[in-house]
Specification:
Elements (H helix, E strand, L loop, with lengths): L1 H24 L10 E5 L6 H17 L3 E5 L6 H8 L7 E6 H6 L14 E10 L1 E5 L8 H10 L5 E4 L5 H13 L4 E4 L3 H9 L5 E3 L4 H5 L4 E6 L27 E7 L4 H15 L2 H9 L2 E3 L4 H21 L4
Parallel strand pairs: 1-2, 1-3, 6-7, 6-8
Antiparallel strand pairs: 3-10, 4-10, 4-11, 5-8, 5-9
Helix pairs in contact: 2-9
């Protein structure tokens, strides 16, 4: 009887020991079961929003919790960025940032946060391709033709962007400066609205990845792409640098994940690991590339260096253009 009781006790204890060992083998998670807020600082339909939808689902699956996208648009992405900067640093409120609201917008006015001090870099999503797209009524098929047309029709052209301080705003100003023509900036509350204004003929051109589906559908004409090489969605469209433009432009085309300052290093490391694992997933990679992104895994420290360098370069460019 005693032997039988010992055997039964050992049998009951074995699953508990195995579970305890498995728990010890897994790193403790910094995340509770409550939903994680994934702040998109632009309206639905914007490039930032599209990326947020993809990455929030992928991150939620790996964390095993609900990750809810919240659109908090305004001030070129500054409203959403400030919300995250002021949030409790418990890793449950995150910012799906674009370069615009971290390295451009803070130079243009009081945004209520310091991107180098108040936000903790978590993970880089990738480099964004972009496209210079014009309304089909504009009689241009290249950057040279656009510049010639603008110079022959001074003060006529305008360009749409996702708002003051967006990458499209800066790029439009740089194109006008390098081409030595005047163009009026037309800011909208998000890239989707900006693209629709060009499709409707209210604006003449846009420099934004959100224009890609309109170009493919023939509603807009692509005359140049921006990126490290030709965009594989538009292999026939030469890059801006191939057309001898944009060589010295600051790099404002990336997306990344950020948390409030003071978020624990353990939580950031866990998020970075799951995020980079998501980027390596074939389905996630394909979805991001459809939105004009080339996924790139990076450490929080690498992203921090990138933000600091681009912040300084963009600030110098804005001051030269007398925008800041």
């Amino acid at each position: 009887m005693l032997l039988r009781r010992h055997l039964l006790g050992a049998g009951l204890a074995a699953p508990l020991l195995l579970r305890n060992r498995a728990a010890l083998a897994q790193p403790a998670s910094a995340f509770s079961d409550r939903p994680l807020r994934y702040i998109c600082p632009f309206p639905p339909g914007a490039t930032n929003d599209n990326i947020a939808r993809v990455m929030s689902r992928a991150l939620g699956e790996r964390l095993g919790i609900s990750v809810v996208v919240e659109n908090r648009a305004g001030a070129g992405g500054a409203v959403g960025a400030r919300l995250v900067a002021e949030a409790r640093p418990d890793a449950h409120t995150l910012l799906n940032a674009s370069a615009g609201n971290l390295v451009i917008a803070p130079h243009l006015g009081a945004v209520g946060y310091d991107p180098l001090r108040d936000l903790a870099p978590v993970a880089l999503t990738g480099e964004a391709y972009s496209i210079v797209a014009v309304h089909p009524s504009l009689p241009v098929n290249s950057i040279a033709e656009l510049v010639a047309y603008a110079q022959q029709n001074p003060g006529l052209l305008n360009y749409a962007s996702a708002g003051i301080g967006s990458a499209g705003h800066l790029r439009g100003a740089l194109l006008a400066e390098e081409g030595r023509f005047d163009a009026v900036h037309a800011p909208f509350p998000g890239s989707a609205h900006a693209a629709h204004s060009v499709v409707a003929g209210d604006c003449h051109l846009i420099i934004d990845p959100i224009a890609a589906p309109h170009v493919r559908a023939g509603r807009l004409r692509g005359i140049a792409t921006l990126g490290p090489d030709r965009w594989d969605l538009f292999p026939e469209v030469p890059t801006l640098t191939e057309q001898n433009f944009g060589e010295s432009w600051p790099n404002g085309g990336w997306f990344g994940l950020f948390a409030p300052r003071g978020t624990s290093e353990d939580a950031i490391a866990e998020l970075n690991r799951h995020y980079n694992d998501s980027l390596a997933d074939a389905a996630v990679d394909a979805a991001l590339r459809r939105f004009g992104l080339r996924p790139i895994a990076a450490t929080p420290r690498e992203l921090a260096r990138r933000v600091a360098a681009d912040h300084a370069e963009s600030g110098a460019t804005l001051r030269r253009l007398r925008i800041a």
